[in-house]
Amino acid sequence: MYQTILTSLENAICIITINRPDKLNALNNEVFNDLDVAIDDVYKNPEIRSAIITGAGTKAFVAGADISEFLELDTSEATELSARGHKVFDKIENSPKPIVAAVNGFALGGGCELALACHFIYASENAKFGQPEVNLGLIPGYGGTQRLTQLVGRNLAMELLMSGNMISAKEAMEIGVANKVFPPEELLPKTKEILSLIQSKAPVAVSKVIECVNNFDHTQQGYDLEIKKFGECFATGDAKEGASAFLEKRKPNFKGN
Ligand code: COA
């Protein structure tokens, strides 16, 4: 069904693997098509409760947008390409089910932006992050100037975006880009482990966490959204089950509604 990605379902976790290892998993038009459909499936398929995005092979997560598609673009085509990428990455960011990036090598340009669009990032020790678009006379086009700045702050984002420098997994963790770093063979098992833990929580509450955090706003608007979403949790059976289970000193049995 897919040309450029692999998917598998394990313990309700959908593992989406970008599968162009000979091109370091660069994001071409087909990858965006496939990713778009796969993320729709994450939204709609009740058998899927969370997802992992990773790259095929041991060298790269995703080494960027496919540069071979850039040569012939004019302004309006490039604008369209960027808007399309934004649409797919926004869908990842706003997924009501958790999506985690397991960064297993180079995460450059669009690859770094793909990881940044996920809800959080686990990385392997050999991972490298960077936004090298300035080397090509470009800027990031899939959210990098915005998501990176929000995550690491203005000055670090300026340095990374203007220099095009790559940083190691350890440095990425120090500046808050990667949450955790593991030896390569432990990356997927550890990512599955955290998602299994998250899947044991009330799914509606988890989706409301995603919504509130994504709409972070330090003005009253952010607090107002939290107040509204907190109230909405009380319309779910899972909120009653959670409190009852605590008071009855047993494990909750969440049903997802
Ligand atoms: N777009 C298209 N093809 C890419 C690519 C990209 N972003 N990144 C890597 N590739 C291709 C290479 O052209 C090469 O293909 P070939 O074997 O047909 O020549 C193959 O993937 C392997 O890459 P190569 O450059 O030989 O590997 P390396 O180990 O020497 O270098 C990188 C690895 C990641 C440092 C280097 O590939 C690179 O700089 N890639 C581009 C990164 C970038 O600028 N990304 C932002 C794009 S906006």
Short synopsis of the structure:
By secondary structure, the chain is of the alpha/beta class. It is 47% helix and 17% strand.
Task: Give a written overview of the molecule.
The chain has 257 residues and is α/β, with parallel strands linked by helices. Helices cover 47% and strands 17% of the residues. It is built from ten helices and ten strands. It has helices at residues 29-44, 75-93, 110-117, 144-152, 154-163, 169-174, 184-199, 203-214, 220-233, 237-247; strands at residues 5-10, 13-18, 50-55, 60-62, 99-103, 106-108, 120-124, 128-130, 166-168, 180-182. A six-stranded mixed β-sheet has the order 1-2-3-5-7-10, sandwiched between helices. Strands 4-6-8-9 form a four-stranded mixed β-sheet. α1 links the parallel β2 and β3. The model has no long low-confidence stretch (mean pLDDT 98). The structure holds coenzyme A. Coenzyme A binds at residues 23-24, 26, 63-68, 106, 108-110, 132-133, 136. Residues 23-24, 26, 63-68, 106, 108-110, 132-133, 136 line the site of coenzyme A.
Q: What does the overall shape look like?
A: globular
Number of helices: 10
Quaternary organisation: single chain
Mean pLDDT: 98
Helices and strands, in order, run as EEHEEHEEHEEHHEHEHHHH
Count the beta strands.
10
Structural class, by secondary structure, is alpha/beta
With strands numbered from the N-terminus, the spatial order across the biggest sheet is: 1-2-3-5-7-10
Which ranges are low-confidence, i.e. pLDDT below 50, for 5 or more consecutive residues?
none
Rg (CA only): 19 Å
Tell me about the biggest sheet? 6 strands, mixed
Helical content, roughly? 40-55%
Alpha carbon gap, first and last residue? 31 Å
